[in-house]
Every structure is written in structure tokens, then in C-alpha cells.
TrEMBL record:
Belongs to the citrate synthase family. The active site is at residues 259, 310. The lineage of its organism: Bacteria, Bacillati, Actinomycetota, Actinomycetes, Streptosporangiales. Coiled coil: none annotated. It comes from the Bacteria. One of its GO terms (biological process) is carbohydrate metabolic process. One of its GO terms (cellular component) is cytosol. This is Citrate synthase. GO terms for molecular function: citrate synthase activity. It catalyses: oxaloacetate + acetyl-CoA + H2O = citrate + CoA + H(+). InterPro entries: 2-MeCitrate/Citrate_synth_II, Citrate_synth-like_lrg_a-sub, Citrate_synth-like_sm_a-sub, Citrate_synthase, Citrate_synthase_AS, Citrate_synthase_bac-typ, Citrate_synthase_sf.
Length: 373
């Protein structure tokens, strides 16, 4: 069977977007024309969510109004509240989020509208709710009582405080906020594409986000950050190079490496590596960071592959005190900004997304009655 050159839709332009752009050869990423290197560390996640969803970086008054809207959207709604305990008992984190987002949709005040203004409000509510869903789920499954969050706290500070149970330092808040900025949007990645396919049927915002969450969950996409940490935890720190070579020799993929679009270093990985090193050194135990550096060298020497966004995100989240099985949910907190903006963009200039397939099965077969088969 001849290989389909567009298998996995590689290099197929599936939508037009003004949200983000990648130059895979130069290793550049921009959000609405702003280079990620100019945004990271200088712009809050809330500003980036506003930029993506509403079209421009906010001024002070616009940001104040948007953060007030986010603060109002922090509740779960009665149906999600009622089901939270059972979900926390029975479902893994990404499954739980898929369920909870679906349930919050039932109580969304704009649930019956796909109008542009309604979708802007839903986008803000979903962005505000996602960190709360993760924190509430984690508290429900561990029996912890969530600390009261400072009403002035931004998403990064409030989430770190609720998940770790301790007040994060100013530098930890800045680092986590930068992580959220770095993960907010990334052109036609698998989960965004799933959201756009769903939105293009003129389905609603919550359905599109549920499709995106199910897609982010997989280890070839957002699930890779958790797998990176599991790989590091399972390795002997003195046997990193050998373990990596053995995995490659067995034909296994090394999680956190390789990318469909980047043929050089992923610009997000540059920031995440630096932040991982800073946190590792501050923690007094940089073992995982040193192991990561060694993995990076071996994977590049053996396969010529660079780390992607998930590789150093894993150790950054680890050093920040986030439980490993919440790494992919953390990705979803950030990517909610991009997914919702893509749904809005899709609805603004919609056409059903319906690609073709190449039939490779048998033809012209003779039908037989059931007793003659
Ligand atoms: N480890 C080892 N080999 C790899 C890796 C890896 N991480 N990634 C790619 N390769 C190899 C493949 O085995 C293949 O080799 P071959 O041509 O000899 O068969 C070649 O490089 C091309 O790989 P594909 O999987 O065909 O590339 P594709 O563009 O389809 O996949 C992907 C990209 C899914 C990211 C891939 O690199 C991968 O599986 N990486 C590991 C999972 C991961 O980190 N995912 C997160 C991606 S970033 C994100 O989604 C947020």
C-alpha cells in the first residue's frame, strides 16, 4: 500500500487563523503578531487570553474589566457541583475535566446561544473555570480543604496556592504565569483542530472544548508532559544515557521530543529549560534537571530531535509542587485561551470541515445471504 503523503494531515492547511503563527525552520512563534519571546515573562496569562479572545492586548481599563469578568466566572454551576464527588472518585484527571466542562455547559447562562457576544462571555467563563475545576477536583479526591484565595490574585497565583496549599513566592507566580503564556495557543495542533472541527458543524462552545480536552489527553499531544516526568522518575540518574539508547533501540519514542512543525528548537522550550534550571537550583536538588539535560544531549546525538514544549514543562511543574497527574490538566488551563479563541474565529467565517479519505479496502465483492457465508 503506497504511503499517503498527507497521512496525519502533515503540511495540509486546514484553516485560516489570525491567532498564532509558527515558523518551524526558524523556531519562531507569535500570538497575533507578537513574538513569544517578547510576551513571555512580560505579559500575564490574563492579557494573553484577552489578546487571543478579543483581538488586541488590553489597556489597563480593559484588563481590569476582563479580570472582573473572570472573577465572576469562577463558579462551577449546580450540576458540576452535584457530580464533582463521584467524578473525583471514579475518573482520572483528564477524564474528569472532560466530564466537568460538559456539565458546566448545562448551567452556562449563554448555553442556548452561539451569538458572537455570547461566545465571548463563554470563552471568559471557561478560562476562569478551568483552574477552579482542576483545583476542586484535586481537593475532592484528596479530601483537602482549599485555601481561600486572595480576590486580587491572578490565575497563576490562585491556582498554585490552591494546588500546593501554600502561598507561592513572587518568582514562582511569575514562572507559572509564563508557563501559562507559553502554552496558550499553537496554530493547528491536534486539540485545536478537534475544537474547530466540532465548532464548524455550528455546535456549541462547550462541545468544542470537550472535543479538545479529549484530544489533548493523548500521550502524543498534551499527555506527553506527564509521561516525561514518569520517564525521569523511573530512570536511574546514573544510567540516563544508556536507558535512552535502549529505549531508542527498542523503537520506543522518547516523550517530550520531536514536533510535527519545528525542525529546530521550539522557542517555548528555550524559556522552559531556563525556568527549570532556576527552580532546580533554588530547590537544592537539581537531579531531574541534570537528567533532562543529559536526555536532551543523547536524543539529539542519536536522532537529531529537539525537546518540545512538554519536555521542560514537566520539571518546571514538578519543582513548583504540582502533582504529576495534573500536568496535562495544567496544559488545558492555558490552552483554554487558544481553544475558545479558535471556536470564535471558526464561527466568524465558518465552513463545515469535512476532508476526504483515500479508500484502501476491497472493491466489487459479491454479497451472500447469511447462511452461505
Ligand atoms: N522519540 C523517538 N523517535 C521519534 C520521536 C521521539 N519522541 N519523535 C519522532 N521520532 C521519530 C519517529 O520514530 C519517526 O522515525 P522513522 O521515520 O524512523 O519512523 C520520525 O521521527 C518521525 O516521527 P513521526 O512520529 O512520524 O512524526 P510526527 O510528526 O507524526 O509526530 C510527534 C510528531 C507526535 C510530536 C512525535 O515527535 C512524538 O510522538 N513525540 C513524542 C510525544 C510528544 O512529546 N508529544 C508532544 C508533542 S508537543 C504537543 O503536542 C504539545
Amino acid at each position: 500500500m503506497a504511503d499517503n503523503p498527507t497521512k496525519g494531515l502533515a503540511d495540509v492547511v486546514a484553516a485560516s487563523t489570525a491567532l498564532s503563527d509558527i515558523d518551524g525552520k526558524a523556531g519562531r512563534l507569535s500570538y497575533r503578531g507578537y513574538d513569544i519571546h517578547d510576551l513571555a515573562g512580560r505579559t500575564s496569562f490574563e492579557e494573553i487570553a484577552y489578546l487571543l479572545q478579543r483581538g488586541a492586548l488590553p489597556n489597563r481599563a480593559q484588563l481590569d474589566a476582563y479580570t472582573a469578568e473572570l472573577a465572576e466566572g469562577r463558579s462551577l454551576g449546580p450540576l458540576a457541583e452535584a457530580c464533582l464527588g463521584a467524578i473525583a472518585e471514579r475518573q482520572e484527571p483528564m477524564e474528569a475535566l472532560r466530564s466537568l466542562v460538559s456539565l458546566t455547559g448545562a448551567d452556562d447562562p449563554d448555553k442556548n446561544s452561539n451569538a458572537p457576544e455570547a461566545n465571548l462571555r463563554k470563552a471568559a467563563r471557561l478560562t476562569a473555570q478551568q483552574p477552579i475545576l482542576v483545583a476542586r477536583y484535586h481537593a475532592a479526591r484528596t479530601g483537602a480543604t482549599l485555601p481561600e484565595i486572595d480576590p486580587e490574585a491572578g490565575i497563576a497565583e490562585a491556582f498554585l496556592h490552591q494546588i500546593t496549599g501554600r502561598r507561592p513566592s513572587q518568582r514562582e507566580i511569575e514562572i507559572f504565569d509564563t508557563c501559562l503564556v507559553l502554552h496558550a495557543d499553537h496554530t493547528m495542533n491536534a486539540s485545536t483542530f478537534a475544537a474547530r472541527v466540532c465548532a464548524a458543524t455550528l455546535s456549541d462552545m462547550h462541545s468544542a472544548i470537550v472535543a479538545a480536552l479529549g484530544t489533548l489527553k493523548g500521550p502524543l499531544h498534551g499527555g506527553a508532559n506527564e509521561q516525561v516526568m514518569r520517564t525521569l522518575e523511573a530512570m536511574d540518574p546514573r544510567g540516563v544515557a544508556r536507558a535512552v539508547r535502549e529505549k531508542l533501540a527498542r523503537g520506543e519514542k522518547i516523550m517530550g521530543f520531536g514536533h510535527r512543525v519545528y525542525k529546530t528548537e521550539d522557542p517555548r522550550a528555550t524559556h522552559l529549560r531556563r525556568m527549570s534550571q532556576e527552580l532546580a537550583e533554588a530547590s537544592g536538588d537539581d537531579t531531574y534537571f541534570r537528567m533532562s539535560r543529559e536526555m536532551e544531549e543523547v536524543v539529539f546525538a542519536e536522532k537529531g530531535l529537539y525537546p518540545n514544549v512538554d519536555f521542560y514543562a514537566a520539571t518546571v511543574y514538578h519543582y513548583l509542587g504540582i502533582p504529576t497527574d495534573l500536568f496535562t490538566p495544567v496544559f488545558s488551563i492555558s490552552r483554554m485561551a487558544g481553544w475558545t479563541a479558535h471556536v470564535i474565529e471558526q464561527h466568524a467565517d465558518n465552513r463545515l470541515i469535512r476532508p476526504d479519505s483515500e479508500y484502501v479496502g476491497e472493491r466489487d465483492k459479491k454479497w451472500l445471504p447469511i447462511d452461505e457465508r
